[in-house]
Amino acid sequence: MEYIEKVLSELKAKNPHEPEFHQAATEILNGLKPVVKAHPEYEKVALLERFVEPERVVMFRVPWVDDAGNVHVNKGYRVQFNSAIGPYKGGLRFHPSVNLSIIKFLGLEQILKNSLTGLPIGGGKGGSDFDPKGKSDMEVMRFCQSFMTELFRHIGQDTDVPAGDIGVGGREIGYLFGQYKRIADEHAGVLTGRGLSYGGSLARTEATGYGLVYMVEEALKCRGDGLKGKTVVVSGAGNVAIYAAQKAISLGAKVVAMYDSNGYIYDKNGVQVEVIKQIKEVERGRIKAYADRVKGAEYHEGCKGIWSIPCDIALPCATQNELDAAGAQLLIKNGVKLVGEGANMPTTLEGIALLQKAGVVFLPAKAANAGGVATSALEMAQSSGRMFWSFEEVDSKLKGIMVNIYHNMDEAAKEYGVAGDYVAGANIAGFTKVASAMMAQGIV
Ligand code: NDP
């Protein structure tokens, strides 16, 4: 379609060194073809051009001092992408690979993900090329304090509410919040993923992984099937991966493999999530230790081999582009039935095309991992209402939201003539609400 091609080619020309941003925009805009065709008025007001251009990008210096007294300088980012339907909302990622392209791809995805939750939250994302791995608690604290010393002036409970992502868990959120409170002199719900003793929500830690599995279960249920007895491969060993594995197991599946950035473990008897939690959450160690502790488990150096393990369901939950065409081909060859994306953009465009062509049920990230941000929005509601809901209450709201998102994207795909294509369905269902709010608010 001419309009979409024009927007994509302008986007690539204006942002030449941002491959991840190009990839995300290509996937999203191509999925929107039927809806853009049905709304010629969008082109007249340059709606897509505005949609792919962040409202604001903040980049800043983050200087900090390590335990030995050496001074380091990292880059800090906050991309406030779209506030048409609510305050900017989206995580902070601390990882050496972070750059503007990655933050923009995540921010663009986040707009539609947040819209899909049905809650009033706009899209944003941020982070730094700081690597928390191998740093002492005090070093992480000093970095977080320096990062927040600049970020605090750009965020607020009705403006922009960051959360965690890769490398930003409970410890980092605590340090960031402490510094915000100290500078702004307010105990506000300005970050989510907070600890339970200072305004956090029960079930937020589990939400993204649990939410992913609730959607998988619903997709299987609609096909007269369920997770019971299924073999599952989960990539990653962080927040999303651990709780996805835990929930899949509790619903009767067998998780046989997981990885961290060094290599994967294969446990034919079923991965013991408590051992993974001890190694990754408590000891901040390497997954390799699992094979030393659990009889019969194997460790393999390198990550890609994980996709050669036969499974019914694959849940990529680590990072972008971890499941490429070669991985998808291996999964298909071994009879995979469903792929649910826990991470953001973990499957390459070629990988998605292969899986969809082979008839594999493909649940895209912006729908399948929306449980985290949905529960963050529930945390915001609890904060502003000075309320505290039980685990069961939050968990059952989360489940309702995930089931709802599944049916919304399923129906949107059917309505626009692309039944079963959930990539298109999720993009369309998320976009229509944002587009309608942007149309109503004029050229801004
Ligand atoms: P964590 O930092 O808790 O865990 C990330 C995991 O992925 C770690 O096991 C890490 O390995 C592994 N990993 C990171 N980079 C690579 C790589 N290049 N190759 C192989 N493995 C890698 O992050 P989260 O679990 O929070 O996030 C995982 C994904 O889920 C991200 O894409 C994030 O954007 C997405 N997401 C997270 C949400 C949340 O609520 N946390 C919400 C929605 C999406 P190692 O231990 O070696 O570092």
Chart the SSEs and their pairings.
Blueprint: H1 2-14, H2 19-31, H3 33-38, H4 41-44, H5 47-51, E1 56-65, E2 71-82, E3 88-94, H6 100-116, E4 122-128, H7 137-151, E5 160-163, H8 170-184, H9 204-221, E6 231-235, H10 239-250, E7 254-259, E8 263-266, H11 273-282, H12 288-293, E9 298-301, E10 313-316, H13 325-333, E11 338-340, H14 349-357, E12 361-363, H15 365-368, H16 371-384, H17 391-415, H18 422-440
Parallel strand pairs: 3-4, 3-5, 6-7, 6-10, 10-11, 11-12
Antiparallel strand pairs: 1-2, 2-4, 7-8, 8-9
Bound molecules: NADPH dihydro-nicotinamide-adenine-dinucleotide phosphate.
Residues 164-167, 169, 208, 236-241, 260-261, 303, 317-319, 322, 342-344, 369, 372 line the site of NADPH dihydro-nicotinamide-adenine-dinucleotide phosphate.
Sheet with most strands = 7 strands, mixed
Mean pLDDT: 97
- Bound ions, cofactors and other small molecules, one mention each: NADPH dihydro-nicotinamide-adenine-dinucleotide phosphate
Give the helix/strand class.
alpha/beta
Task: Quote the CATH topology of the domain at 207-368.
Answer: Rossmann fold
Number of strands: 12
**What is the CATH architecture term of the domain at 207-368?**
3-Layer(aba) Sandwich
How much strand?
A: 15-25%
Rg calc? 21 Å
Q: Order of strands side by side in the largest beta sheet?
A: 9-8-7-6-10-11-12
* C-alpha termini separation: 25 Å
Uncertain runs: none
Q: In which range does the helix fraction lie?
A: 40-55%
Q: Count helical runs.
A: 18
Task: Identify the CATH class of the domain at 207-368.
Answer: Alpha Beta
User: What sort of overall outline do the alpha carbons produce when their principal axes are compared?
Assistant: globular
Instruction: Give the quaternary arrangement of the chains.
Output: single chain
